[in-house]
Amino acid sequence: MVIRPYYSKEVIKRFTHPKNFGEIKKADGVGRVGNPRCGDIMKLYIKVEERDGKEIIKDIKFNTLGCAAAIATSDMACDLVKGKTLKEALKIDYKKIIKELGDLPSIKIHCSVLAREGLKAAIKNYYERQKKEKR
Amino acid sequence: MPKRKIYLDYAATTPVDPRVFRAMLPYFNKKFGNTMSLHSFGQEARQALEESRERVSELIGAKPEEVIFTSSATESNNLALKGIAFANRKRGNHIIISSIEHPCIMESARWLKKQGFKITRLPVDKYGFVSPENVKKAIKKETILVSVIHASNEIGTIQPIKEIGKICKKKGAYFHTDAVQSFGKIPINVNTMNIDLLSASSHKMYGPKGAACLYIRKGTRIEPILHGGGQETGLRSSTVNVPAIVGFAQACKIAKKGMNKEAKRQIGLRDKLIKGVLSKIPGAHLNGRPKNRLPNNANFWFEGVEGESIVIQLDLSGIAASTGSACSSVNLEPSHVLMAIGLKHEQAHGSLRLTLGRWTRESEINYLLAVLPGIVDNLRKISGNIGDEDKSSSSSALS
User: Fold this and answer.
1) Residue B327 confidence (pLDDT)
2) What does the alpha-carbon distance between residue B124 and residue B295 come to, in Å, rounded to a whole number?
3) How far, in Å, CA of B150 to CA of B210, rounded?
């Protein structure tokens, strides 16, 4: 039996060289999830654009205070939904994030769940802002 | 990357000293006898075992017959707690431990609680210090055992063992100390320090894994937890692991000879490390006392960074470090030791432990001081200080 390294190559790559970290100053939606207790806090910012009547994630960035897995899942989640419609983005589940990362240690699976929750929160926040504007 | 990987996790385990390795070799296939055998092979092994017992007992001022060998400090600590509890339950059912013990003490105590014993966990101050005054207050007529770790495996705080032992002696409770991290590093004398039971481990002091000991003061009432062939005066049945024990004894011999000099050398490096980290990295804090800590231990927490991510980055830079105890890496809870000294969750999650050893050189400390500030800075850029935004937030509230 070959023991796999604790973190996959892709997790290490994303952790050491995340492409999508930073803040979007005038974001259309922001989601903040996690808590200090569990040690991971994620904040996702989305910029939404309407194309052919569809709402598309034009840009997405994150700030994450957390372990290597939390940072890697945040970065991967951003890549997975960039250019997608909001409806498509909402369908991304945590298993997809794990699959794209190669694998995650079982104790870190919650990080991928957190990244998906952050994404959902950012989209929900976008919809709420839209509602307010329409009023 | 440094030419050679830098190991700064000596509190987790140590490499076997080459002199220890050499001493062990004949006992694998030449002097391989079973210590219980009557023939010359067995007697040769028994001779080595008894000589090893002398070497180990010398390091703590004990009589050889007061030291029994086990396979690990976890086993020694289990034997100390459970063995004392069951042998003395007619006298009382109360046991006192500190709140910064190693998991093997805490879990043994938790198990004993299920068997009907009453457990008191003593608080510590912000440096992880157990106050003898609190021990005095907590001891009752029913108290049969007090167990306080000699030096913290996480933050290195050295406890006032002598004073605590004195109180236990006066009150008629047995006093046990888990000396795994201090054994062979700082002087220990079981008599002047009023210790009735003491656990130590070989692999934390340049001996092999698989050997450890429990010192048990003569006359102490204790029950075995392993029953069988009656080895180790009936207190620890099992075929004796002679090669590992010979290695353990050799490690003790080496440690005894150069202890003060080596401690001094490590204190110099440790203080340089602590000073360097605190001055080069804003928002860095030392856990534990600046002085009166193990010569080889430095433990920090950093604002706005998570400890594990620092450890992974250091590893990628060729430096092995730890977030705390290696044992706690299997669950996500922050260190109970850091919580006990009053750190908040987010602070405890930002901790880093660096522990030095016999082969740590100044150039390695310099290298660490050159790379760590950049690592912390990078991780702070990724976190963008979001930890500061809403410290009371504990839900997935939208911003």
Assistant:
1) 45
2) 21
3) 21
Give the residue among B101, B126, B97 at the shortest CA–CA distance from B112: B97
Domains in chain B (CATH in brackets) are 6-13+258-383 (3.90.1150.10), 18-255 (3.40.640.10)
Q: Do B332 and A39 make contact, defined as CB atoms within 8 angstroms?
A: yes
Contact call for residues A50 and A70 (beta carbons, < 8 A): no
Q: Is the pLDDT of residue B393 over 90?
A: no
Q: State the amino acid at position B275 in one-letter form.
A: K
C-alpha span between B395 and A33 (Å, rounded) = 7
**What's the gap in Å between the CA of A7 and the closest CA on chain B?**
10
B391 contacts in chain A (CB < 8 Å): 36
- In whole angstroms, give the CA distance from residue A64 to residue B97: 38
Closest CA to B229 of B31, B42, B26: B42
> Is some CB atom of chain A closer than 8 A to the CB atom of B389?
yes
CB B128 within 8 A of CB B152: yes
Give Cα B28 to chain centroid, integer Å.
28
Marked catalytic residue, from B104, B168, B252, B327: B327
What's the predicted TM-score (pTM) here?
A: 0.93
Q: What is the mean pLDDT of residues B245-253?
A: 98
Give the long-range contacts of residues B103-106, CB within 8 A, separation 24 or more: B103/B325, B103/B327, B103/B328, B104/B73, B104/B74, B104/B77, B104/B78, B105/B77, B105/B81, B105/B147, B105/B149, B105/B178, B106/B336
Q: How distant is the Cα of B284 from the closest Cα of chain A, in angstroms?
A: 16
Q: Is the pLDDT of residue B219 over 90?
A: yes
Interface A:B, Cβ pairs < 8 A: 94
Instruction: Report the C-alpha gap between B269 and B21 in whole angstroms.
Output: 27
pLDDT at B325: 53
Which member of A76, A92, A111, A122 is catalytic?
A: A111
Decide if A38 is catalytic. Answer: yes
Spatial strand order of the sheet with A29-35 comes to A29-35, A40-51, A54-65
Q: What percent of chain B clears pLDDT 70, i.e. is strictly above it?
A: 95
Instruction: State the smallest CA–CA distance between residue B277 and chain A in angstroms.
Output: 21
Which structural domains are found in chain A, ordered by start? 9-134 (3.90.1010.10)
Mean pLDDT over B162-185 rounds to 98
ipTM: 0.93
Residue whose tokens read 């086990």: B70
